[in-house]
């Protein structure tokens, strides 16, 4: 019996400067060593499965039990990982999986000697040009194209069945006509959305980078959730900080979580951020209680000897010695 093909890895590369990455530093600043360990263990799990890992309620509970970290904390750490770009936010929203460009690239490099490595087309974050480096990948789709069947009527089909089929077809055609009229009314609304997306893509390209197909898709998704002006402002802030799409994605995610949907909401968001920042700056750590011996300038002073107590101790020792001699 043939052995099942291995999809995951037995080990994966972890740079010695891994903890110096800004994304990991942000996780550690919020969750400490627990955040670091959960991210590393998630990477271990992802690579053991391949290049992605489904993440849902069941996985949260199992992961919490195996790591000893409270489930709510695990969820918060994963959410932060998505917010800071450790994992791809769009694929998580669409397919509930944890993965990233870096994870996929390292995985494809590691399985370079394997044959026919199955890869889901909808999960891939690398460009077609990048994928050309890995000819051993067998890319499949979650939505395979079903070939259209040739329309024909058997000669021995019952006339009643034929009339029923024709009646059904006529109803379908009538429905299509109605839908086409309805769609023509919605075309004007979609044109506005297309113009907004085009404007966003132009700004993104001029200020950050040429958008990939995946980035275009994510920006289109953001346009459904947020106003165009909000996204443009996030692009401007990303440009001013000299950051990339991951930073932009984090800003938009935070906007959404904080209830920022229109440009007018940004002023309240900024005010709230300044207040939180000021509160953090003004926060004074609690003074630590130190014993006298730990304080600077402490001098050890011997306690005065109690002569009567010293005499009693001497007598007790003499009695003990006397008993031992007998």
TrEMBL record:
Family label: Belongs to the DnaB/DnaD family.
Official protein name in the record: DnaD and phage-associated domain-containing protein
Gene3D superfamilies per the UniProt record, alphabetical: DnaD domain-like
Domain Lin1244/Lin1753-like N-terminal: 11-103
Ranges for domain DnaB/C C-terminal: 202-269
SUPFAM superfamilies linked to this entry: DnaD domain-like (SSF158499)
Location of region: Disordered: 301-326
Polar residues: bias regions: 308-317
């Amino acid at each position: 019996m043939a052995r099942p093909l291995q999809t995951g890895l037995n080990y994966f590369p972890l740079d010695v400067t891994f903890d110096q990455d800004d994304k990991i530093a942000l996780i550690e600043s919020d969750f400490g060593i627990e955040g670091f360990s959960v991210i590393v263990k998630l990477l271990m799990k992802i690579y053991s499965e391949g290049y992605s890992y489904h993440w849902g309620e069941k996985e949260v509970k199992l992961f919490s039990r195996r790591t000893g970290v409270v489930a709510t904390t695990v969820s918060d750490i994963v959410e932060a990982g998505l917010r800071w770009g450790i994992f791809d936010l769009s694929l998580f929203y669409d397919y509930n999986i944890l993965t990233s460009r870096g994870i996929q690239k390292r995985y494809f490099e590691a399985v370079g000697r394997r044959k026919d490595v199955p890869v889901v087309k909808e999960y891939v974050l690398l460009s077609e040009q990048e994928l050309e480096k890995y000819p051993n990948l067998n890319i499949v789709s979650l939505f395979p194209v079903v070939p259209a069947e040739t329309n024909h009527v058997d000669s021995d089909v019952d006339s009643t069945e034929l009339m029923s089929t024709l009646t059904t077809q006529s109803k379908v055609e009538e429905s299509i006509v109605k839908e086409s009229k309805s769609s023509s009314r919605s075309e004007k609304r979609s044109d506005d959305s297309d113009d907004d997306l085009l404007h966003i893509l132009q700004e993104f390209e001029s200020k950050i980078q040429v958008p990939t197909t995946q980035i275009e898709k994510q920006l289109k998704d953001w346009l459904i959730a947020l106003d165009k002006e909000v996204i443009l402002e996030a692009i401007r802030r990303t440009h001013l900080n000299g950051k990339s799409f991951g930073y932009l994605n984090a800003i938009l995610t935070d906007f959404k979580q904080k209830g920022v949907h229109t440009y007018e909401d940004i002023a309240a968001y900024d005010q709230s951020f300044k207040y939180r920042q000021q509160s953090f700056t003004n926060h004074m750590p609690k003074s630590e209680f130190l014993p006298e011996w730990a304080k600077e300038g402490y001098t050890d002073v011997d306690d005065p000897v109690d002569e009567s107590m010293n005499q009693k101790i001497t007598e007790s020792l003499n009695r003990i010695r006397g008993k031992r001699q007998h």
